[in-house]
Write a structure and sequence with these properties.
Residues 210-286 are annotated as: Disordered. This protein is mainly alpha-helical. The chain is 69% helix and 0% strand. It has helices spanning 22-36, 58-69, 94-210, 229-262, 267-285.
């Protein structure tokens, strides 16, 4: 997890990089990071040393030792190009003259080889140069093909990255729009709930004002905080009770009329029965 790199920038869809102050802000952040970072001497100790021994030749090893010992570099020896006579103290020695003769013969052989190489170059140098140029041209063409392939691969990678970022941008915008829609709906629902609570509270206060101030009357059930159906059901129940009372009163009046027609002589009894019926109707209505 520590080696993972989370890339949260989408340069193909992000905007604002060219705005005023963005570059200055980025440079200020880099400077702040460089000022706070204090590298230690051993911050590369966890990395292994490069294995250079397979590439070292004896000449390189000797040169590295000379550099490590801080010795001066040896000058180029020109002795083999010179024809010195024997030293003055060895003019009478045959071996000294023999050494000088061998040196002169080596110089002559070297010059002959040089002239031979010049003649061979004059004869075959042109064709060899042409062959070298053909090989070099083929190598150049092969390198150009490899370069074009690398450029194509880079372009494919950039196109794939652009396509992936474009798809991610479309998805992010769709998710953002959906989030905004959900937030708007939640706000509308909260607003409607607040309005319904106000309506229910107003209806409750109105019912409390319209309720009769009877001492012994049973306490009516509290109106639940619903969508307003409780108040409507209560009003429908009151209307049904009023209709039942009206029907009961009509029936009582009809019975009283029948009793009055059948018993004309007993007026007092009819009046008492009528009073009883009225009292019964009043009790039912209460």
């Amino acid at each position: 997890m520590a080696d993972e790199v989370i890339v949260d920038a989408l340069p193909y869809i992000d905007h604002g990089y060219d705005d005023v102050g963005v570059r200055e802000s980025a440079l200020a952040m880099v400077e702040e990071e460089c000022r706070r970072y204090r590298p230690t001497k051993n911050y590369l100790d966890h990395l292994p040393l490069p294995a250079s021994s397979p590439f070292e030749t004896p000449l390189m090893i000797n040169e590295f030792e000379r550099i490590q010992n801080r010795l001066p570099m040896e000058t180029l020896s020109m002795k083999r190009y010179e024809l010195p006579p024997p030293p003055s103290g060895k003019l009478s020695e045959v071996s000294a003259w023999q050494e000088s003769i061998e040196n002169s013969m080596a110089q002559l052989e070297h010059q002959w080889v040089r002239s031979l190489n010049l003649e061979l170059m004059l004869d075959y140098g042109t064709e060899a140069w042409k062959s070298y140029l053909e090989v070099f041209t083929a190598m150049q063409a092969k390198a150009q093909i490899q370069l074009q392939q690398l450029k194509k691969d880079m372009q494919d990678v950039n196109w794939q990255r652009k396509q992936a970022q474009t798809q991610a941008g479309d998805k992010l915008r769709a998710l953002e729009a959906h989030w905004v829609l959900l937030v708007s709906k939640n706000y509308e629902i909260e607003t409607e709930c607040v309005e319904l609570e106000k309506v229910v509270q107003a209806a409750r206060e109105q019912l409390e004002k319209l309720a009769p101030p009877a001492d012994n009357a049973p306490t009516p059930p509290l109106v639940e905080q619903t969508n307003g159906h409780a108040a409507e059901e209560e009003s429908n129940g009151n209307e049904a009770m009023e209709e039942d009372e009206a029907e009961t009163q009509v029936q009582a009046e009809a019975e009283a009329d029948e009793n009055s027609q059948s018993n004309d002589g007993s007026g007092n009894n009819n009046e008492e029965e009528k009073e009883d019926e009225e009292e019964k109707v009043s009790n039912d209505s209460s």
